[in-house]
Design goal:
Length: 56
Amino acid sequence: MKSGYIELKEVPKAEINIIGSFLYETIAAFYAEPENQQKFEEWKAKRQQDKLRRLK
C-alpha cells in the first residue's frame, strides 16, 4: 500500500455509510441556503462561459 493511500476494500462498510451520511447532510445543508444556491449557479454559468471561450 502506498503512503497516504486508502484501500477502499479495507474500510468497513459501516464506516463508509457513516462518512457518506455525514457528507450528504453537510452538502444538503449547504445548498439549502439560497445564497449558496446562487453562488453555485454563478459558478456553473462562469464555467460554461469559460468552456465556450476555449472552443472559439
